[in-house]
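Recall from the previous lesson that a structure prediction takes nothing but the amino acid sequence as input. Here we apply that procedure to chorismate mutase from Maritimibacter fusiformis. The sequence below is the only information supplied.
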Amino acid sequence: MTDDDTARAAALLKEHRASIDRLDAILVYTLGERFKHTQAVGRLKAEHDLPASDPAREAAQIERLEDLAKRADLDPEFAKAFLNFIIREVIHHHEKFQDEGA
Ligand SMILES: C=C(O[C@@H]1C=C(C(=O)O)C=C[C@H]1O)C(=O)O
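The prediction returns the following tokens.
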């Protein structure tokens, strides 16, 4: 391993990390936008006495996401766990709206 190799590796690492930082920003803004819509859905549900969760919709989303994950070379089990984690948080928000009579 020469000094040149080490310098090239350091430059590559820096480039990858810059890309990772940009992608993390996209993830955060994307999640922020998603939550804006789910919050609006939660208020609608609370106003119209609709249940906080919709298991049929969730099952359809999971199926769709697993398919997308496979095509994107992402572990479908990870994609499923990630979406379930987000949906649990959304339902928690919806239940709070219903408790508050939003
Ligand atoms: C956002 C909704 O509420 C819940 C949350 C969902 C989600 O985060 O995608 C999907 C279904 C519901 O359990 C909805 O009904 O569309």
